[in-house]
Every structure is written in C-alpha cells, then in structure tokens.
Design brief:
The structure holds 2 protein chains of 2 kinds.
Chain A lengths: L1 H12 L26 E9 L9 E10 L2 E11 L11 H4 L3 H5 L4 H12 L4 E3 L2 H16 L7 E3 H8 L10 H7 L10 H21 L5 H19 L1
Parallel strand pairs in A: 1-4, 4-5
Antiparallel strand pairs in A: 1-2, 2-3
Chain B lengths: L10 H11 L9 H9 L2 E5 L4 E3 L8 E7 L1 E8 L4 E9 L3 E2 L1 H5 L7 E4 L3 E7 H10 L1 H9 L1 H17 L17 E2 L3 E2 L5 H11 L3 E5 L5 E6 H9 L14 E2 L3 E3 L4 H11 L3 E5 L5 E6 H5 L6 H10 L3 H20 L4 H26 L6 E6 H4 L11 E5 L7 H21 L17 E3 H13 L3 H5 L1 H4 L2 E5 L3 H16 L1 H11 L6 H9 L8 E2 H19 L7 H10 L5 H27 L7 E2 L6 H24 L3
Parallel strand pairs in B: 10-11, 14-15, 18-19
Antiparallel strand pairs in B: 1-8, 2-7, 3-6, 3-8, 4-5, 4-7, 9-16, 11-12, 12-13, 15-16, 17-18, 17-20, 21-22
Helix pairs in contact in B: 1-2, 4-5, 5-6, 6-12, 9-11, 9-13, 11-12, 11-13, 12-13, 13-15, 16-19, 20-22, 22-23, 22-24, 22-25, 23-24, 24-25
The chains are: A alpha/beta, B alpha+beta.
C-alpha cells in the first residue's frame, strides 16, 4: 500500500491528475458481525486551521489502519493538503505546518478522493471523533459532494469503557498515552497522533477480546450502553 | 530499495527509523535498510502476561523488536516443577534469532512482562534485510555474543588509543616461540655453550638430554652471576651452573599464561614442549612483550628486588599504567585482576622481606590475606585485609610470640599503606592481636566462627572464608583450611545462615529499570562492587564451601563447581561471563577515574554508560538474580 502511495505521489508531482472512479466510491460499512480480530479499522487524526468546523479548514490528514488486531505500517496515510489560500497563522504554533509546507501540499480534491478509496468504507476511529467527523464530513461534502456516513468510533469513549478504573488524571489523548507509557514521536502531527491513537486502540481491543467482545456490533453496543450510562449519571 | 530523502518519508516511518537507530544492530545499518524495516513493519500489542511466541506455534515466521515494555522467556524446570525466567528482552532488543534462522519453532515460551508493544517484520522482509545488510546479518548470526564482542572491543580500543598495537595475549604460545632453539648437552663446557649463544645472537641456551627433554637452562644472567661470584672456571660443564628443571608450557598454552608464569617466578625464558615433553621452542619475555611495551615481568622483577620502600611506592604508578596496557592488549578482566593480584603479592612479599632484613622477629610465620586479595580479585582500589598464622616454638607462649610479631606487623601494615594499600578501617590487619594467631588459636577461632555464628560473624564471612597465604610456609594454612572446610561441610545450619547472608545483597535491577523512565530526575548511582559483584562472590562462596572447593577465586570456584556437577556447565559459563563483564566495566571506570585524577570509587551512573553496556549490565545483574535463586532453592530460603 505504501508503494501505491509513493506511485501516486510521484504522479502528482509530475502534474498528472489522479484517476478516480467517482461513480463508484466505496460504501461505508455498518457495525455488523465483522470479527474485531480480523476486520480493518481506520484510525485517523486531522490537523485543522482552528476548532470551529463552520469556519476552519482541514490542512493535514494522518491515518493508520489496524487489520487483524495489528497496526500495518505499510497501510497508512500521511498527507498535507494544498491550501495556500488559508490563513493558518493562529494555529501554526500548535501543529508546526507553515505556509510553505501548505503550498507544497496536494490538490485537495484529489487527496480526498484518494483518502476515500484508501478508507474503503471501513469504520473510522479517532480521539474525540466528533471533531474529526464534523470536519471530514464537511470537507468531503464541500469538495466532492460525498455525504455517505461512515461508522465512527470515539477512542476517548473506548478506553474508559475497558479501563474504567484507570487513573489517567485527565481525558485527553496525552493523559492516556502517558498512562500506558506511550512515546508519541511528534505531538500534533496528524500521522503521529493517529499512530498513538491506534496504539491505544490496540490496548483496548486486547482487553475487549479478554472480556468476550468479539464483533464490531458488540463493541458498538457496549460503547452506546456506556454513553447512555454516562448521560444518566449526568442528570 | 528506494533511498528517498528522509523528509519524503511519512512521519511514522521516520519515527520508527529514529527509534531503531538507538539500538544495535540498527545503529550500524544504512537508512535505506532501516526504511525497509519501518515500511514493512507491523506494530503489535501484548498485555502483561500474554503469550507472544510459543513452541506450539510452529516454525517461526516473524522477527520482533521490543518497542516498549519487556518480553521474558519461560522454561519449565521439570525437576523442581516450576517456571523459570531464562532471559529478558527489553526495549530495542530483538527476538527470536536462533529459531528464525534455524527455521524451527522457538524452544522457549515468550511472554509479555508488563504491557508491551513490538515492531515486527515478516520472513520475506527479514530475508531481504538479512541478505542486503552486513551489520544486520552479522548480528543475527552471532546473536548476543556479538554484543559481548563489541564491549570487549571497545574496552580494548579505549586503552589501545595510546598504545598502538593489537597483539592479543590470547595468542597461542607457539606463534611467539622461537623454533629450533639453541641447545646443548649437559657436559658441554660453559665456554663452548656461551660461544654457541654468541654465534646465534641469543641470550639463553637450553640443556637437553638424549630424548630432547629440557633438563636445564643457562642464560647470560647466569653467566654474569657465575663470573661475579666466582662459581668456577669457564670449562666447568654447563650442567653444574645451569638452572635445572626449567619452566615449561605446552605449545597450546597462550601468551597470557606464559606472562603470568614469568611474572610469578621472575623468569625471562620459558621452554615450549610437545605432548611428550620434548623441546620444540623457547619463548622469551622480549618475544612476548617486545611489540607491546607491556613490561609485566620486568615490573614484577623490579618490585621484587627493590631495596627501598621509596622505590616500591614509586612503582605503584607503573602498576596502573600496566593495567591500562593489559586492557589494551585484550587481556580480559579475569586476567587483569590476577595480574594486579600478582603484582600486589610481589609488593607485599618485598615489603615483608625488606623488614625481615632490617628487623627479623626470629619466628617463622605465614602471612595471610583475606577478602578480595584472598580471592585474587583485586582491582586498583584495594585495602589491606591481612593476618598472621604461626606455629608456637617450643618453650614459648603464644603471648610471647605475639610480643615479637606485632611490632613487626605494625611496621609492615604502615609501609603497605604507603605503597597504596589503604589501612583497613575494620582493623582486619596482622598488627591486630586478634588476627596474629597460632594454628591452634586460628582453629579455635574458626570453631567459634562456625558453631556459634552470630549475624555479626556472618558479616566477616566474606573476609575470613576467602583466605590465602602470600608469604611463608603454605602447609600450616592448608592444614587449617582442611579442618575448616570439613566443619562447614558437616554444618548444614551454618551453610544455611551463610546462604541467607549471601541473599542480603540483591542485584540493583529494580533501580536499574527505574532509571530508564526517569530521565530528568535525580541520577542513580550503582555500586558495582556491592550490588554487582558481591551477589556472585557471596553465593558462589556458599556453594564452594559446602562442596569442599578449596580455592578462593570466584571464577575458579565456579569452574570447580561445574566440574563437580553442582552447577550446570551452561549456567556456570553464563555466570562467569556476567561476573567478568561487571568486573570489566568496573575496571574501566577505575581507569577513567584515575586518568581524571579522581579518587577511585565503585560507583557508576548507569546514565553515563552507552546503551549497549547498560543492556549487558542489566543482563549480568539478571544472571546474578538467577544464581541467588539457585541458592534460595538449594537452602529452601
């Protein structure tokens, strides 16, 4: 898969347009009886120009794939989008992508088509996924008119569901990464954050297996039940 | 394989490459190969206690590197029906090499020890790297042993920087030995023998019998003595003035053995003989050291013939220089500690001789050394632990003997201190009336020590149970030791108390593991002697005493215990190696402190070590734990 990305990047550099079958973009899969131990899961992280989905834009996409309970590093996605028109001065300090890098990014439309094909309709996991979901769905709709909903799973829900007693000292990705002693190579780099999120997902999936949660549906149900429980506590 | 610019690689590929670069063998591999690894890797998670690889999994098809956490190897001990940890693999280390290369299942169950992430590549990527990267292939084929080689190479190269020679003392003697040595028959007149030496431009001639067995040696030094002391005319048959029974070694002995033999006896020449004791060559001190400037024999001789205390004191710095040189020439730590001990022995003997010349107390005695000197395990940092054993002459009381010996011992202790042997803080010195005893008194002393052993007594076990004679007749000590060993062998309770005492000092593994996670925090110091070496020395002592092993040297005790079947030979080798490596790291630290003009200590900060040494130190400490476990099982502690 990485070779495929390389070829694609080289084609893009040569100025060729990607060939995409716009009529037959993958259909998102729903939470069914797929076994967690062999289905493919996308773990994704976006860097954006800000926190407001109505106003701000996606500037980088990082994602890795988990298949068969293992992260495959030859199956990853790490792209900066070409958005020179965007003003990124406010957030440049956080994610470290300067204007120069953005102008060297890739044609948004092409990159998004490629992302959709690479995701292959598989379930998408992210930390505080509501944020990434809003931004990605907005961008896909605006650029490609693509509106099919993927199945999203929030890793921020997944972890407390399987480690209810963990004393993490907070709910942020950093808190969980520290709790499990992970080293994040470069925080706020989309791909590095995606890998850290995927590593936490592996830890949770290992625990899920031991608790007898076998299918995607069972996992989704457990998380839904967990959310309901939390909402009840809130009142 | 693509060799893209680093910046064109995805962030996660770059991150994995820089992780790999911190560890051997990846640190010596090309970027293109590291990229190939990173791009073909999978990342796997194993929770604490999960099986990672099992003998039941079939032929191994995957190569792993621990990214975070730890893997332990488990072996079931059928005899004792319990599970033992055979090895530990931590961050940056690889597994399973032997099984992967041998295309067979693993023989050891690999289990996650704590939550663990591993990077792995499949067999095809492994084969690509194996065939394209030389450092990777070397590493896989030689396994951990190549790491040990690297450590030894570095120890040598550090000291070598100032020496500029690579001759190793492990070289078999036959490579040094002069072939077709100059020989003559015993009846040849000295004049003709010397003429033959002159013709051949050599300093010695070997006197052989009809079967070519060496029966004597005659050297230029002997000629000098003969003329100076007017021992006879030059037509005296050489057999009357030769040194009979010359020292000999088999051809497969190494240069180190020859050097030690020469240093001990102050000989400059040795005969090299074949299996039937026939002369095949001569090796001289010059042959051994001409290229190396390692003047062990000369130094030993200078010490051994010094006429003033002042000279002895000034020679101590030469000993330190020599240690540097020995390390440079590939002597291992076991060899070097023996050399230091040999030179220390020569110094102690000479101090005693000089004092006897000045002020002989008139009573024969045996000078005993205890502790590390008794074990022949001294490094440059050493203090005095000595005592006197005497036989009370007829008509004298033991008190009367002490009155004569104690002032003598006091002077010797003081002069040894001037030579650099620090006075013993616990007053374990021959000038202490309690340690200047007759054979009968020593025997009583040991009876009390063994039968009425108190916790305080046990503290002294590391001193008094490692005992050796340095000067004077050795027979009285041998008799004493025999009685002591028999008593200990019969006294299971004492053995058990000794074993309990040996378990007091635990290898610093917990601390060592912690420091890995505490970068910015206060640094940790390790005491290589008390925490690293002592667990070996003390555990081995218990086994040695319980099994009638008389030698006090820890490495030799382990060898003996393996021969007696008390230790599994593989275990004994692992323990010997681990012990030697800690000793080597300690000695290198000493040399570095010395070169910086600092006071010698046994403390090191593991953060100052490179990752390889840290790994090896950790593995060595783990071996110490295994040895202690054996002690626990044997004595049911």
């Amino acid at each position: 898969m990485l070779d495929y990305i390389k070829q694609w990047l080289e084609r893009r550099r040569a100025g060729q347009l990607g060939e995409h079958d716009r009529e037959n973009l993958p259909t998102p899969k729903s939470a069914g009886d797929q076994l967690l131990s062999d289905c493919r899961l996308i773990v994704l992280d976006l860097e954006t120009t800000g926190l407001n989905a109505a106003r701000d834009e996606v500037i980088a996409i990082g994602a890795v794939a988990i298949s068969g309970g293992v992260i495959h590093l030859d199956d990853q996605f790490d792209l900066i989008l070409r958005r020179p028109e965007l003003d990124i001065s406010e957030t440049v300090l956080i994610h470290g992508i300067g204007p120069e890098a953005l102008t060297q990014g890739h044609e948004t439309e092409d990159a998004l088509l490629y992302l959709l094909e690479w995701m292959n309709g598989d379930p998408v996991l992210a930390y505080h996924s509501a944020f990434d979901q809003k931004f990605l769905e907005k961008t896909l709709k605006a650029q490609l008119g693509y509106t099919q909903p993927h199945l999203w799973i929030d890793v921020a829900d997944l972890l407390p569901a399987f480690f209810p007693d963990a004393k993490t000292g907070g709910k942020r990705l950093d808190n969980w990464a520290d709790f499990f002693g992970l080293e994040v190579s470069e925080r706020h780099h989309a791909a590095a954050d995606a890998l850290a999120t995927a590593e936490l997902t592996l830890v949770a999936l290992n625990k899920a297996r031991k608790e007898g949660v076998k299918t995607l549906k069972e996992l989704n149900d457990k998380l839904r039940y967990q959310r309901r429980l939390q909402n009840m506590h809130r009142f | 394989m693509a060799s893209n610019q680093d910046s064109n690689r995805p962030q996660n590929t770059r991150a994995i490459m820089s992780f790999l670069r911190e560890h051997a063998p990846f640190s010596s591999m090309d970027d293109a190969h590291l990229a190939h690894f990173a791009e073909h890797a999978t990342l796997r998670f194993f929770a604490d206690g999960d099986e990672v690889l099992s003998p039941d999994d079939g032929i191994v098809k995957r190569f792993y590197v621990v990214k975070q956490g730890r893997i332990r190897g488990e072996r079931h001990n059928d005899k004792e029906d319990r599970t033992e940890t055979t090895f530990e693999i931590s961050r940056g280390e690889c597994f399973p090499l032997a099984a992967l290369i041998g295309e067979r299942p693993t023989r050891t169950l690999h289990r996650a020890d704590g939550d663990t992430f591993c990077l792995s590549i499949e067999q095809d990527a492994f084969i690509t790297l194996f065939s394209e990267s030389d450092p990777f292939r070397d590493f896989c084929l030689r396994g951990v042993s190549s790491l040990l080689d690297q450590v030894n190479q570095r120890i040598q190269s550090n000291a070598m920087a100032s020496m500029g020679s690579s001759n190793s003392l492990d070289t078999p003697l036959e490579r040094y030995a002069l072939r077709n040595p100059i020989v003559c028959s015993p009846d040849l007149p000295v004049r003709k023998a010397v003429a033959r030496m002159h013709e051949n431009n050599v300093g010695s001639i070997i006197i052989t019998d009809d079967n070519r067995h060496p029966i004597g040696i005659f050297t230029l030094r002997d000629l000098r003595t003969m003329i100076a002391e007017e021992k006879g005319p030059l037509d005296t048959p050489v057999r009357q003035v030769m040194t009979a029974e010359p020292c000999r070694l088999p051809a497969d002995a190494d240069a180190f053995e020859a050097a030690m033999l020469m240093a001990e006896h102050h000989f400059a020449h040795l005969c090299v003989v074949d299996d039937e004791q026939r002369l095949i060559g001569v090796v001289s001190e010059r042959d051994l050291f001409a290229l190396q400037r390692v003047d062990l024999v000369n130094l030993a001789r200078t010490i051994g013939t010094a006429t003033h205390l002042r000279t002895l004191v000034s020679l101590r710095s030469d000993v330190s220089r020599l240690v540097d040189a020995m390390l440079a020439h590939g002597a291992d730590s076991g060899q070097v500690v023996k050399i230091i001990t040999t030179l220390n022995d020569v110094t102690v003997r000479r101090v005693l001789e000089l004092n006897l010349q000045k002020n002989d107390p008139g009573i024969p005695f045996t000078w005993l050394t205890f502790g590390s000197e008794g074990r022949q395990e001294q490094t440059l940092l050493t203090d005095q632990d000595n005592g006197i054993l005497f036989r009370t002459p007829e008509g004298m009381t033991e008190e009367q003997v002490r009155e004569k010996l104690l002032p003598f011992a006091q002077t010797v202790n003081k002069e040894l201190a001037e030579c650099g042997f620090t006075l013993c803080k616990g007053n374990i010195m021959a000038s202490n009336p309690k340690l200047c005893l007759s054979n009968r008194e020593w025997d009583d002393w040991f009876i009390r020590f063994i039968d009425a052993s108190t916790p305080q007594n046990l503290v002294y076990s590391s001193i008094f149970l490692d005992m050796r004679a340095v000067f004077g007749p050795t027979e009285p000590l041998h008799e004493l030791l025999e009685k002591v060993l028999t008593r200990i062998r019969k006294n299971a309770l004492f053995q058990k108390m000794l074993a309990g005492n040996a378990l007091q000092r635990k290898p610093p593994l917990t601390m060592f593991r912690n420091f890995r996670y505490l970068n910015e925090e206060k640094k940790h110091a390790l005491d290589l002697k008390r925490q690293g070496l002592a667990p070996f020395v003390e555990s081995v002592r218990v086994f040695a005493l319980a099994n009638g092993v008389e030698t006090a040297n820890t490495l030799e005790r382990m060898e003996e215990l393996a021969k007696k079947g008390v230790f599994d030979p593989k275990d004994a080798n692992a323990w010997k190696e681990a012990y030697s490596l800690i000793q080597a790291i300690r000695m290198r630290a000493h040399q570095e402190m010395l070169s910086r003009g600092e006071e010698l200590t046994n403390y090191i900060d593991p953060d100052d070590l490179n990752p390889l040494d840290r790994r090896i130190l950790r593995e060595s400490f783990r071996q110490a734990q295994r040895l202690q476990q054996k002690l626990e099982v044997t004595y049911q502690l």
